[in-house]
Amino acid sequence: MQTQLLKTFMPKGDKEIFAYIGSYNLRISEKIQQLEAIKQKGIVRQLLTNGIVHMILALEIEQHNEDTKNGVTNFGSLSRGEMDTINELSNFIQNYPEIKYTLAYLSKKGGMSPAKLQEGFKLLHNRTVSDFIRNTRVETAENLLKTTDLNISEIVYTVGLTSRSYFSKIFKEKYNCSPKYYQENQYSVAVTA
């Protein structure tokens, strides 16, 4: 791996020093926070550290390639402040999935254009805004199926959806089973435990 990295980032040997300061990337920032939060000792710490450092390296290389491509094609990139806003909006959506979100509402709340908002969600989550909202609702519903006694209709409304059949469809796409089957399976696991 070291040889490949040297070939990629130091193409003329060590005569030129390579320096790269890329765009702010929240995924890299989260990995660095995970690295700083490791509390384990010994080999477990070493393995966790190695895994996270390799992920950071992969994300940095991916960001470098993206920045290089954007520099050539003159695509806009988001500032650190805009990425922080995208992160805040993401957390807001995850905390309040029941709100009826629109792109216009989120753009106004974040103080950025819909195009910047979409770009930020694609960079941070590799999803469009609507895909992120839908995924958040399904994941919240899955957690409610596991941890509450709410029936499926109550869960559908709790996560901000109005159609039980639509919910069943998107749930099955993500978890490969119906919400009813999932819920019944959770109860049987709890009973046998």
TrEMBL record:
<feature type="domain" description="HTH araC/xylS-type">
    <location>
        <begin position="87"/>
        <end position="185"/>
    </location>
</feature>
<keyword id="KW-0804">Transcription</keyword>
<dbReference type="InterPro" id="IPR018060">
    <property type="entry name" value="HTH_AraC"/>
</dbReference>
<protein>
    <submittedName>
        <fullName>Transcriptional regulator</fullName>
    </submittedName>
</protein>
<dbReference type="InterPro" id="IPR053142">
    <property type="entry name" value="PchR_regulatory_protein"/>
</dbReference>
<dbReference type="GO" id="GO:0003700">
    <property type="term" value="F:DNA-binding transcription factor activity"/>
</dbReference>
<dbReference type="InterPro" id="IPR009057">
    <property type="entry name" value="Homeodomain-like_sf"/>
</dbReference>
<keyword id="KW-0805">Transcription regulation</keyword>
<dbReference type="GO" id="GO:0043565">
    <property type="term" value="F:sequence-specific DNA binding"/>
</dbReference>
<dbReference type="Pfam" id="PF12833">
    <property type="entry name" value="HTH_18"/>
</dbReference>
